[in-house]
């Protein structure tokens, strides 16, 4: 049943309350019967009707139960054509590299402080006429 392929254009045609398709992680879901029942309200669903709702769906942090409901609405997969919008990235994927680079920056600051301390100590010792190390 879930083997049908839809283009972005096909999905975009289903953008009303009764006929509402959503794309989540490049799979196509028919939410027409679910819009009324959605615990988060129909407005948010209709905002992304006929579009890629991956980001909206993931940002809410839907429960496993919500994901099971989603699977029951599956009708097919998205076939991307050249020129179609790129897949929506999840927020987690973009946050990870930013964290790593800021940790690297913190470590570099410590390195500079330690090297500066050693240089200051050496300068002080030589100004006192003592032999270095
Ligand atoms: C077919 C797709 C969707 C399904 C099956 C679904 C299902 C659910 C379910 C079962 C809940 C109850 C809480 C939970 O179990 O996580 C929920 C809550 C919610 N949903 Fe969705 N949802 C879908 C799409 C969306 C979209 C596209 C949005 C857009 C922002 C959205 C926004 C919300 C919000 C804001 C809540 C929280 C409501 C509250 O706690 O008061 N949902 N959804």
UniProtKB/TrEMBL annotation:
SMART domains: Cyt-b5. One of its GO terms (biological process) is sterol biosynthetic process. Its main location: endoplasmic reticulum. Pfam families: Cyt-b5 (PF00173). GO terms for molecular function: heme binding; metal ion binding. Residues 3-79 form the Cytochrome b5 heme-binding domain. Keywords: Electron transport, Endoplasmic reticulum, Heme, Iron, Membrane, Metal-binding, Microsome, Transmembrane, Transmembrane helix, Transport. It is found in: Endoplasmic reticulum membrane; Microsome membrane. Gene3D superfamilies: Cytochrome b5-like heme/steroid binding domain. PANTHER family: CYTOCHROME B5. This is Cytochrome b5-like heme/steroid binding domain-containing protein. It comes from Microdochium trichocladiopsis. The lineage of its organism: Eukaryota, Fungi, Dikarya, Ascomycota, Pezizomycotina.
């Amino acid at each position: 049943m879930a083997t049908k392929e839809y283009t972005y254009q096909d999905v975009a045609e289903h953008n009303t309350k009764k006929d509402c398709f959503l794309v989540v992680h490049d799979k196509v879901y028919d939410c027409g019967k679910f819009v009324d029942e959605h615990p988060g309200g129909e407005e948010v669903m209709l905002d992304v009707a006929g579009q890629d709702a991956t980001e909206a769906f993931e940002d809410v942090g839907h429960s496993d139960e919500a994901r099971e409901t989603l699977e029951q609405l599956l009708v097919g997969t998205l076939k991307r054509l050249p020129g179609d919008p790129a897949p929506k990235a999840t927020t987690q994927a973009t946050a990870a590299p930013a964290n790593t680079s800021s940790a690297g920056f913190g470590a570099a600051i410590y390195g500079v402080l330690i090297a500066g301390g050693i240089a200051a100590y050496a300068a002080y010792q030589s100004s006192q006429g003592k032999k270095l190390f």
